[in-house]
Amino acid sequence: MSRWRVSWTGYFEQLFKADPPARTLDILGSTVLEADPSFSCEPPSLTEMAQVVNQLMGDKTAGICVYHDVTSTFKKTTIRMKKQNPGYGLHCHRAIITMCKLIGVQDMYAKVSGSTNLLNITRALFQGLGKQETHQQLADRKELHVVEFQDAYGSLPIVVASPKGGARSDPEPEDEIPHTKLDWNEVKASQGMTRSAWANLKRTIW
C-alpha cells in the first residue's frame, strides 16, 4: 500500500470518526455543532488522489482514456463525450473537469444536456467511461486493424491496435444507409436553424 493511499485513508478515517466541538448559544440555550473539526494531517492533493485512483483501477485511467465518442444518460442528465487530440484540453462542465483531472483524462469535449445535478453528472460520467471499448477490444471483436487519423499526419492512417488472432480477409459490411445517431441541436446549428426566424425582419419605424 503506497504512502498516498495511507495518507488518503487516514484523512477520511479522521473525518468520519471525529466528534466536532459544540458551543452553546446565550439566547436560545441550544447546542450548535461547528462544521470544521481540527485534524492532525493535511488532506491529500489532487495529484496524490489521482495516483490512488489509478492504483485502485489498475492504471487503466492513466493518461488519455477516452477511446471514442460516447453518450451516457443517467436519469434526466445526458453527457455526450468526444475524444480530442492531445493538447486540446478539457472543454466541459466544471464538475467533469475536476473529475477528469483526478482520473487522468487530459483531452476531452463533453456537453451536458438536461439536468445539471452534480450527482447525476458524476454517475453519467463514470457510466460512460466504464462502458466504452478500448482499441484492442474493438480490434479483437471486429478482427480488423483499428486506425485513427490525426491532423498532424493528414490522410495517413495510424494503426493503434491489431487483432491478436490476425485480421480477417473480408472487409466490414456497410449498410446502404449508415446508422448514425445525430444530435438534433447540432443538426439545427449546422443548418442555421438556431437563429430566430424573425432575426432578419426589417421593422418600419414611424
UniProtKB/TrEMBL annotation:
Biological processes annotated in GO: translation
Entry's family note: Belongs to the universal ribosomal protein uS5 family.
Protein name: RT05 protein
GO cellular component, one term: small ribosomal subunit
Lineage start: Eukaryota, Metazoa, Chordata, Craniata, Vertebrata
Residue ranges constituting the Small ribosomal subunit protein uS5 C-terminal domain according to the UniProt record: 73-141
Gene it is expressed from: Mrps5
Keyword Ribosomal protein among record annotations: yes
Alphabetic keyword roster: Ribonucleoprotein, Ribosomal protein
Superkingdom per UniProt: Eukaryota
A Pfam family: Ribosomal_S5_C
